Amino acid sequence: MTNLKINVDRIYDFADRKKINALQAEIDIHYRELIEKQGKGNDYLGWLNLPAETLDSPMAGSIAYEADRLKKLSEVVVVIGIGGSYLGARAIIEALRNPFEEHQQGRPEIIYAGHNISEEYLHDLIQFLNNKEYSIIVISKSGTTTEPALAFRLLKKHMENKYGNDNARKRIIAITDKSRGALKELADKEGYSRFVIPDDVGGRFSVLTAVGLLPVAVAGVDIQKLLEGAASMQQELFKSSALAENPACLYAAARNALYRSDKPIEMLVNFHPGLFYMTEWWKQLYGESEGKEHKGIFPAGASFSTDLHSMGQYIQDGLRVLFETMLLVEKPGRNLTVPVEQDDADGLNYLAGKRISEVNKMAATGTAIAHNDGGTPVITISIPELNEFTLGELIYFFEFACGVSGYMLEVNPFDQPGVEAYKNNMFALLGKPGFEEKQKEIFKKIK
User: Fold this and answer.
1) Is residue 134 within 8 Å of 75, Cβ to Cβ?
2) Is 441 a catalytic residue?
3) Max Cα-Cα span within the chain
4) 3-state class (DSSP) for residue 401
């Protein structure tokens, strides 16, 4: 039995129970397409069995070994990657770390590069690394994606100047394609430690490969428990496609029922600041999977209660085109109560003695009721507490639901043809060889 719970009671005014239950036959078809690997993009379904396959594999031991080696070498580890190459790892690390905890011996600070093309960011990063003992985990299937390739070129040069070529090689780990690509060739030439991105796992589904597992292991996360949580969810979801028994199928059905009821925007909101990057990972997972052929639910995100003071007005009273999925954590990880103030100048003595987590929980419940009354459907997904096991469950839940939901939209959830358009324009504008005709075409448009 999974620890994750989903509640769709607050959507029935917009997509009634009969409408959702009527989707069961459709869900059954797409569920079988997914688990039997018969649907669109079935050559990218290696993530389906990753948790169980990885748990006792030699790769898990190799990851632990390399993570320990980097911990001994480094005050800082720079993870170079973009999209799925860094978002999953960052989501897990940020969810579990104490944001105010100073660097501890044996637990390097994890920072990120290759996810933007900001001169200021890269310059300041290099200045920061001048006075730090650091290592690099560079993640790219091809090694030629502009953002990470550019960051790696700069940091590799900096590292070689700082440590010398031989010592720099010991501080770089490449996670890349098994048999081809610029990064794979460089790793072989230089003798970097190397892990493989499986051919049948796309970037946004790669968090439970070395892509995500190595950075989170370096950060001190127990990857065994993370994989156990994902494997537990995998086992649960493979039992049945019944909406009453399969939370991922219920989520896929509910969000598609709302989409078909003129609610094309989903906001994933949380009441825990550590889940900010989980929302960012989810946005990429669903946006890149479902936004095809002029279809798809637009994934947006917010962090409550902070964004209730910015986006709350629109959600309450704006266009009735969105629904919310609230991601809740039931059990707090700390214990802090509201103190009594004798003069009660702020009027908060009615909260005295209550835990902050109770106040937060009531804020979540009150928000769900208010937004629902205002015309916004609300789905709630809750996990009992925030730890490696429950995060593993949550990650696999979202991945599985994404596959089923994409098939309901009749698109291929596992490709991303649209991301090449901006790259081709950028290459042409920068004068990359082979893009001369494209450059002429673009110059006509911008004159």
Assistant:
1) yes
2) no
3) 75
4) helix
- The residue annotated as part of the active site, out of 66, 94, 228, 288, is 288
Q: Which residue of the set 18, 309, 444, 447 is catalytic? A: 309
pTM higher than 0.85 = yes
Lookup result for tokens 């890149």: 288
pLDDT of residue 1: 67
pLDDT at 104: 61
Determine the pLDDT at residue 122: 95
Distance, CA of 408 to CA of 195 (rounded, Å): 34
Q: Which residues of the chain have pLDDT under 50?
A: none
Which one of 423, 436, 440, 441 is the catalytic residue? 423
158 carries an active-site annotation: no
Centre a 10 Å sphere on the Cβ of residue 220 and count the other Cβ atoms it contains.
16
d(CA 169, CA 187): 9
Is-catalytic flag, 423? yes
Cα–Cα distance for residue pair 435/426, rounded to 1 Å: 10
Give the chain's domains with CATH numbers.
Answer: 5-41+227-408 (3.40.50.10490), 46-224 (3.40.50.10490), 418-446 (no CATH)
